[in-house]
Structure formats: structure tokens, C-alpha cells
Amino acid sequence: MCENVFEGTRISKTNEKAKNNGDSAICRRIIKKLKSLSSPEAVVGMSKFGINPNNTYGISIPKLREIAKDIGKNHQLALELWKSDIHEARILASFIDEPEKVTENQLEKWVRDFNSWDVCDQVCNLFEKTPYAHQKAIDWTNRKEEFIKRAAFALMAGLALHDKKARNEQFEQFFPLIKEAATDDRNFVKKAVNWALRNIGKRNKTLNRRAIEIAREIQEMNSKTAKWIASDALRELSSQAIQKRLKQ
User: Fold this and answer.
1) Which domains, from first to last, does the chain contain?
2) pLDDT tens figures, 128-179
3) What is the dihedral of CA 129, 160, 93, 109, to 10 degrees?
């Protein structure tokens, strides 16, 4: 456990000045702890799955979640950790940040720093809890950078799974964007486009029917990437297991 390393991270919110002054020191202690957990062998293994090995310590997500639990929620500390440019520190930052304190400017700044699919996907779990999520999912589809564009569709996938209050219309507006991006053959984009289409189509029966229609339209496009996205989505969305679940 990491109690001694993270002692003092849960500083009272009534003492914000002391809290802010202490965050840099706490950040350095956390980075030191992360470095002590580094595993070059794990980094090599992660790179085989397309994870960027630069500034990476090879710490597992379950271990980072354990560390985040020990730290507790701390927005200012999350900002400090992000500035470290260390792979695991940035994922940890997303675990301890407070969604209600995240600004639109922070979203735009952090998304520009994405350089690995796992950082993108983990941080989007934080982003989807902010009031900017649905709009950023739309806006970022127009970006050319691979991981920013991936973030757009990762948000769509996450919102489809977790935003229980969203209306069908909010997801239906994503379909033309999914179709438009279906010919982007970059690995981390096409997989996210497919992920978004599948998750929206598994949300309820109405969206399932619409997602299948869109997938069939994509399947007719003259693109190997589009045909893969569509075929893979149709296989799951039309499956007996999904159809049975949606009828319940």
C-alpha cells in the first residue's frame, strides 16, 4: 500500500492555499513512487499492443487505480501530474481529477497531449463526465490528429455506455460523423469509429436498428477500412445475444 507516500494528499478544502502550495511536492513524491514501480519488461510488452513506450514505466491499470484510491480526488494535483509528461502519471491524473472542476480549456489542452491510445481512452473516461463531452465528441471529429480524432469516437462510445440520461437524438447526431470517418484507415481511428458504432447500437432497440442501417450503408462504401468497420459492427449488433438483451 502507499499510505506513507501519499500522506497529506487529502488536504482540507478549507485550506486551498496550503493545498495548492503542497501539490508540487506531493506530485514529486508520487512520481518517485511510480518510478520505483517501473518495469522495462512490462513496457516492452505494452509496446506490442501499440502503447507508446516513451516516458512509460510499465505500471498496470489496476495498480494505478489502487494508487488513485490511496490519493483520493484532487484536481490541482491532477494538473500537476499531467505536466510531468509521464505516461502513467497522466493516466493517474485522470483517475484523481474532479470532473466538476475540469474546464473546457483543460480538455483542449490535454487532448492535444495525447500520444497513445490507452492514455486517450482512460482520460476520455474523465472527459465524458464533464458537460462538454457531447459537443467535443462532435468537434473533435474534424481534427486531423490521430489521437484527437480517436478521442471523439472514444467519447461517443463512453457516452453511449454511461450517460443514462442522454436522449436517442443525442446519439443519432453521431451517425453521420461515424459514416464520414469510416474511410480513415489509421488503426487507432478506425477501431474507435467501430467502437462508437457498436456501443451506440447496443444502447437500446431503436438505436440498434439505426446503427445496423448505418453499418449497412458503410459496408457499401468503396473502402477496405469501411467494410471492416461495418462487418465487425454488424456481426455484433445483429447477434442473437444482443438482440435478446435488447428485447428484455
Assistant:
1) 1-101 (no CATH), 113-248 (1.25.40)
2) 999 999 999 999 999 999 999 999 999 999 999 999 999 999 999 999 999 9
3) -80
